[in-house]
Prior knowledge:
The structure holds two protein chains of two kinds.
Chain A: H1 2-57, H2 60-65, E1 69-70, E2 77-78, H3 81-112, H4 115-130, H5 133-151, H6 160-184, H7 188-196, H8 201-212, H9 214-230, H10 233-238, H11 256-265, H12 273-303
Antiparallel strand pairs in A: 1-2
Helix pairs in contact in A: 1-12, 3-6, 3-9, 4-6, 5-6, 6-9, 7-8, 9-12, 11-12
Chain B: H1 9-48, H2 54-58, H3 71-102, H4 107-120, H5 124-138, H6 145-169, H7 173-181, H8 186-215, H9 218-224, H10 243-251, H11 256-292
Amino acid sequence: MIKDDKNLKVRKSHRLRVKIEGKVVGFLVGCAAFITILVTISIVWNLAQQSLGFFSEISIIEFFSSTRWSPILIPREFGIAPLVAGTFLVMIISSFVAVPIGLAVAIFLAEYAPNNIRKILRPMLEVLAGIPTVVYGYFALTFVTPLLKLVFDDMIIFNALSAGLVMGIMIIPFVSSLTEDALISVPNSLRQASYALGATKFETSIKVVVPAALSGIVAAFILGLSRAIGETMLVTIAAGATPNLTFNPIESIQTMTAYIVQLALGEAAHGSVEYQSIYAVGILLFIITFAMNTLGHWVVRRWRNVY
Amino acid sequence: MSTKIDINSSSLSKRKLIGFLFISFCLLGVLVALMGLMSLLVQVIIQGYEWVTPNLIFNYPSRHPEQAGLWAALIGTLYMMGLTALITVPVGVGAAIYLEEYAPKNWFTSFVEINTSNLAGVPSIVYGLLGLSIFVYFLKLERSILAGSLTMSLLILPVLILTSREAIKSVPIAHREAAFALGGDRWQVVRMAVLPTAFPGILTGIILALSRAIGEAAPMVAITALVYITFVPVTPMDRFTVLPIQIFNWVSRPQDEFRGLAAGGIIILLILLLSMNSIAVILRNKYQVRSEE
């Protein structure tokens, strides 16, 4: 009896320990999840606070209306337009590559490719996706630019075209894997119904599967382009450092991200206007990409056909 | 429906021709993507192979290209990866466990979920700005390897959470039910039934997240600024540089020799990445086989 009682006590203390341990772990993992929210808050707070400092010296009207960006050279002028134009120029060029090819690759993988080819092709695309962006920058500068120079004689070494084309190649795997996911989630019964009506494989893919997956495909494009906007090293290396309000792709430009890098490299004095200007550019970049990502996720949720 | 389907055979052959043209277009797309990859690799190897020497690996950076090396950057990268893993893994896996196993279905949970996917889409340079003002200036960590690792941890945290959640999600619900039926409480179930099965998947996620961090240069540029480092970092408070920054530094110079050095550096970086990725692929294959049993 006495022995049993002791066992019971041991078991009780063990159970208590388990209970406390469970509570502590539950609290800790909850904290870990909360940290993610803390990160978002600090990103927004930090960007907002630093750019408020910037906008107390430079009027927000000048920021959006002036067409010259000259943060260091006197006369200083802070008009964001050239940086935004440069960013969107590269994005548009990259979309000419990434959208059609990404879609083609995805349709091929999801609808046409036999299993063994898919098994080879997917890892290769993953390799493409895993290559660091400095490497793409090197590739644009030392391979694509000399190649383009054969076509465009008067092209400047650092130019938007080369950076944009390579950026397009870079985001192909991103666009194609999201698109492929959307295509794969279309149920087979739809394809079978289409075949049963006498449609060819092409007609089934384009008139049945693609429309059914359209929301996912559009979202893939939006998310891919948002990635192109936020991409940094490639444009820093290959697109140049001249804020230039132009839509001529063979000219040298500067994107928002490249400007941030250029200034960060120079160790701008902490607290100076040019130091704060990178946060003003940063918050605009954050807002644009955040809006595009939210739009992308919204398109998926809003227009998804649930099967 | 306006689409009229003709059944006479000449129209069918036309339709088949269109289908053939379409698949040719798709194949062309695949070809362009693969050509891009191939020409990139070939270009790097042709330009860089003769620069991959013991000098490149074991020397410090130098103004003379034939003596320049990336020893400091290589050690800096490995050091930073270690620290980053120490910081991110508990937080990332913890958050994933919370979201999959503990979180009640309420607004907070869905907010954390949306927030995580949004964080994954924030441009990496923005994390650099965050690290610069929070870690470097506000917490006064200076431009140290610790500040760099903390910044990198924040950057890969969403990726790690997403992949760990996938791994935890793929553990069959029966494992949990069996463990609960044996009288386990939530943590015991997670520790003894869920985590052991999810472990290879989580490990794959960790390796992939770290391999993303190895190649990221943008946030590190903001943290380290322009550096010329001729020592190996010892304490977490030392200044440092990493491989992609060293490569960026060499690419930015106009001389051909430095371009060659950059290509050599890229080869080293790609070898490092490739070996990490193959470990991840091997783990994943092993894991997939097991879950099908």
